[in-house]
Specification:
By secondary structure, the chain is α/β, with parallel strands linked by helices. It contains 19 helices and eight strands. Strands 1, 2, 3, 4, 5, 6, 7 and 8 form an eight-stranded mixed β-sheet that branches.
C-alpha cells in the first residue's frame, strides 16, 4: 500500500483541495492522509470553523484519514510550519509521498531553489543582510538576494513548496515529493467565487453572508462539504481574529515593557517596541495590526505574533523537538482502516485516537504540548460559544469522526 500525505488547513475545504487528493491518487497513492492545522492557521488567525468540522469536510472530500497538527507549529513561519510538519509525517514511518500544490508546478525549479536555500552561500547571506538593513521584509529581502528565483519566492504556495523540499533535504526523509499545479484563482484573489476559487475568496463570501445564505459557495466546494459547513456556520457563524480583541488588549496592557513581549514566539524587538508604543490606540485586532505594519514587518508576521501573545506561546525548546511530537487522529474513512493500522504499526510518535484513555501514556514533553493544544482549542470553543450563546464543547471529549 502506497500512502501519500498532504499538509493543509482546509479553511474551508474546497475544490482545489479535492483536486490535490485526486492527483495524489493519480500519482500512485492507494491512501491519502492529511496533516491538518488545528483551530488556528499559519496566517496567525483563528480558523473560520473548528478542527473537527474541517476534518469532517476533508474526509467527505476524499481524504482517507485526518491527523491534527499542533497549533504551536501550525501558526508559525512558513519555514517552521513546513519543517515540523514534514518531520512529523516522516516519523509516522509509513508515508511514501508528500504531495503539495504550487503556482509554478515545476518540481525541478522548486527543488533547485530549495538546494540554494539549504546550502546558503556567503554571497547570498551578504545580499540578504543588505536587504534587511534597507528595511525590506524577510520575504522581499530573500527574493531580492536570489533574483533568479524571485518569481518562485513571490507566491505563497511556491514558498511553502520550497520549504517542504528544504525540510525533506534537512531530515533526509524518504518521502518522495510531488507537486500539483495550482489551478484557478490566485490565493490572494478574493474578488469572486469560481469553480476553483481560493480559500480567501470563500472566507470573504462567508464573512459577508447572511445566516445560511451563501451565494455562490456551492460552485467552489464539494456538495457534501457545503452541507457540513452550512450546518456549522448556521449554528456558530464564522470565527474571526477580531473575536479575540479583548483577549489581546488585556495581554498587551498586562505586559509592561517591550522586552517582556520578546518572550513570546514570533515576536521581534521592533514589533514589541511598536506594540507598546501604540497600544493606547488599540480598538480591534485587525485595526491594530494595520497600525503596527511597517515595510519590514508583514501583516502575517504581526498576526502570528499577536496570536502567540493571546495563546501564551513562549519560547520553549522542550516543546519544539521530536521528543515532544504527537498527533491526534481526528477521523478516518471506514473503508480505509488499513491506513490507520499502517500508521499505528509504524509510527515513532504517539498517534492519539482516544484522548481520555491515552494521554497518560505520553512522555512529559509530549504531554506539555498536548495540554497546550487542548488549552488553546478549548479557548477557541469558548470564544465562539460565548459569541453565539451556544453550549461549550470540550475538545478533549469530542469523538473520533468516522465517515
Amino acid at each position: 500500500m502506497k500512502i501519500a500525505a498532504i499538509i493543509g488547513e482546509f479553511n474551508p475545504f474546497h475544490n482545489g483541495h479535492r483536486l490535490i487528493i485526486e492527483k495524489a491518487r493519480e500519482l500512485g497513492a492507494d491512501r491519502v492522509i492529511t496533516l491538518m492545522s488545528g483551530d488556528y492557521v499559519q496566517r496567525g488567525v483563528p480558523a473560520i470553523t473548528d478542527r473537527h468540522v474541517r476534518a469532517h469536510m476533508a474526509l467527505v472530500g476524499g481524504a482517507d484519514a485526518v491527523l491534527s497538527y499542533p497549533t504551536r507549529f501550525a501558526s508559525s513561519t512558513a519555514e517552521s510550519f513546513a519543517f515540523h510538519a514534514v518531520e512529523m509525517l516522516n516519523l509516522l514511518g509509513c508515508v511514501d509521498m508528500l504531495v503539495f500544490g504550487s503556482e509554478c508546478g515545476d518540481l525541478e525549479l522548486l527543488d533547485r531553489c530549495a538546494d540554494v536555500l539549504v546550502n546558503e552561500s556567503e554571497a547570498y547571506k551578504a545580499k540578504l543582510k543588505e536587504g534587511l538593513r534597507k528595511g525590506l521584509s524577510f520575504p522581499k529581502a530573500r527574493a531580492e538576494a536570489l533574483p533568479e528565483y524571485a518569481e518562485v519566492l513571490s507566491t505563497p504556495n511556491n514558498i511553502l513548496a520550497v520549504e517542504y523540499l528544504k525540510a525533506l533535504k534537512k531530515i533526509r526523509a524518504k518521502m518522495v515529493p510531488c507537486t500539483v499545479t495550482r489551478e484557478g484563482m490566485s490565493y490572494l484573489d478574493d474578488s469572486k467565487l469560481t469553480e476553483m476559487a481560493s480559500a480567501s475568496a470563500l472566507r470573504r463570501a462567508l464573512a459577508e453572508a447572511d445566516g445560511e445564505n451563501f451565494p455562490g459557495v456551492e460552485i467552489s466546494m464539494p456538495e457534501e462539504c457545503v452541507k457540513i459547513l452550512k450546518n456549522d456556520v448556521g449554528k456558530y457563524g464564522i470565527t474571526r481574529a477580531n473575536d479575540y480583541s479583548l483577549l489581546l488588549i488585556d495581554r498587551l496592557w498586562t505586559v509592561g515593557e517591550p522586552f517582556l513581549l520578546n518572550k513570546f514566539t514570533e515576536m521581534t524587538d521592533d514589533l514589541a517596541n511598536t506594540i507598546i508604543k501604540k497600544r493606547n490606540l488599540f480598538t480591534t485586532v485587525d485595526d491594530f495590526a494595520d497600525r503596527c505594519k511597517t515595510k519590514n514587518i508583514t501583516l502575517s508576521h504581526i498576526y502570528r505574533a499577536f496570536m502567540h501573545v493571546i495563546l501564551d506561546f513562549r519560547m520553549d525548546p522542550r516543546m519544539e523537538n521530536p521528543n515532544a511530537y504527537y498527533t491526534q487522529m481526528l477521523g478516518f474513512r471506514t473503508e480505509s482502516e488499513d491506513v490507520v493500522r499502517a500508521i499505528q504499526e509504524n509510527t515513532r510518535i504517539p498517534v492519539i485516537m482516544n484522548p481520555p484513555r491515552e494521554v497518560d501514556g505520553l512522555n512529559p514533553d509530549q504531554r506539555r504540548l498536548f495540554d497546550e493544544e487542548m488549552r488553546v482549542s478549548n479557548l477557541y470553543e469558548s470564544v465562539r460559544a460565548d459569541k453565539y450563546h451556544k453550549p461549550f464543547e470540550n475538545v478533549f471529549t469530542k469523538e473520533l469522526i468516522k465517515v
